[in-house]
Design a protein that fits this description.
Elements lengths: L16 E3 L2 E3 L6 E2 L11 E2 L5 E2 L5 E3 L17 E2 L3 E2 L6 E5 L3 E5 L4 E3 L1
Antiparallel strand pairs: 1-2, 2-3, 4-5, 6-7, 6-11, 8-9, 9-10
């Protein structure tokens, strides 16, 4: 019965079924343990694979050119209180001397 099991966290299919201690999705093949807390929503990882969260501090790992600015954001610049967004530039932040901007998570590491 599809309504007795939670939908697949991957593809949201309602046709999940139990197999041993796991739940399985027949549509995408995803298997998960329903006892474990599932991560929901946006998952953003830094250059080292660490999961980032809203409010984290990060460090820029390479010089990043900024359109309209005379100088790049230098490697080693610490950025505090980030906000995660969905899209190409998945970090919104304020950088001293540059103001509000979006960064890609692949160019930062967790501080």
């Amino acid at each position: 019965m599809p309504d007795t099991y939670p939908p697949c966290p991957n593809c949201k299919s309602e046709y999940t079924y139990p197999m041993d201690s796991l739940l399985v999705c027949p549509e995408c093949g995803h298997e998960w343990n329903p006892e474990e807390e599932q991560e929901t929503g946006l998952v953003v990882k830094d250059a080292n694979g660490n999961v980032l969260k809203d409010g984290d501090s990060v460090v820029v790992i390479k010089n990043l050119p900024v359109k309209g600015a005379p100088k790049p954001i230098k490697a080693g610049t610490k950025v505090k209180n980030i906000r995660l967004t969905d899209g190409d530039h998945n970090i919104d932040c304020k950088i001293d001397g540059f103001g509000s901007m979006g960064l890609k998570s692949e160019f930062v590491k967790k501080a």
